[in-house]
Amino acid sequence: MRKIKICSVITEDNPGTIKKAEKDTDIFEVRIDLIGSSWPDMVRGLKKPWIATNRSRSEHGLWAGSEGGRIAELLRAVDLGAWMVDIELESPSLDLILSETKGKARCLISHHEWENTPSLAALAKAVRRSLSAGAYTCKVVTTARRFEDNLRVLRLLQMFPAARLVAFAMGSEGLLSRVISPLAGACFTYASMEGARSSASGQLTVQDMRKIYGLLK
Predict the structure, then answer these.
(1) Which end of the chain is less enclosed by CB atoms within 10 A, N or C?
(2) Torsion over CA of 174, 32, 135 and 177, rounded to 10 degrees?
(3) Which one of 111, 139, 211, 217 is the catalytic residue?
(4) What is the spatial distance between Cα 97 and Cα 10, in angstroms, rounded to a whole number?
(5) For 152-183, how does the pLDDT look when each residue is reduced to its tens digit (9 = 90+)?
(6) Do residues 105 and 84 make contact, with C-beta atoms less than 8 angstroms apart?
(7) Does the annotation mark 211 as catalytic?
(8) Among residues 102, 82, 138, which one has the least CA distance to residue 74?
């Protein structure tokens, strides 16, 4: 079985929690909007590649400042060594981020469906738009309302075998897709850290995810 990569989401500046998760983590996501002003000092101690994310309130994040300020923080993250920057597909700053990060950091273009899981055709359209825009990695995340929603996002992975794609469903009904997605072709999946708040509904801790994958060997 190929190496399963897990991205652990950092939601608070807690060195002990981060250290505890480190051995089970391949990538960190640094949620600038959740951590607050201490994030630049915190990232200097990270020993794994990290993704910079700064969600606005319209994207269910906590960034309350201007769009210009939000983007400035993401570009600051690039200067501080971010491996990848997460920018939303619908963001008015998409082209700016793609231009300003070129040759410096990779770009993950994300698309979230906060209410449900749309049709497979609609999800595939979001992937194609992200690829056309220049995404290094495409991230499509939906909200599961029924078991079948898990299967829909997993089928999306099969439609784009050559793309670097992350796809799963949020919520308790989407738990299966979070665990199975890297086995179905996703380049990584997301997890919370033990002792820290999760960044999305349905996240398991990175430690529990590793235990599950360990049973599948």
Answers:
(1) C
(2) -10
(3) 139
(4) 22
(5) 999 999 999 999 999 999 999 999 999 999 99
(6) yes
(7) no
(8) 82
Q: CA-to-CA distance for 102 and 124, rounded, in angstroms?
A: 25
pTM (predicted TM-score): 0.95
Q: Smallest Cα–Cα separation from 15: which of 49, 59, 37, 45?
A: 45
Written as six digits, the tokens of 136 are 């290094």
DSSP string, 37-101: TTHHHHHTT--S-EEEE--BGGGTS-B-S-HHHHHHHHHHHHHTT-SEEEEETT-TTHHHHHHHH
| pLDDT one-digit tens code per residue, 117-157 | 999 999 999 999 999 999 999 999 999 999 999 999 999 99
Backbone angles phi, psi at 59, to 5 degrees: -105, 25
Residue 135 DSSP one-character state: -
The question of whether 112 is a catalytic residue gets the answer yes
Q: 159: helix, coil or strand?
A: helix
- In the set 5, 112, 211, 217, the catalytic residue is 112
What is the SS3 assignment for 113?
coil
Owner of token pair 């951590």? 35
Q: Enumerate residues 6+ apart whose C-beta is below 8 A from 180.
A: 150, 154
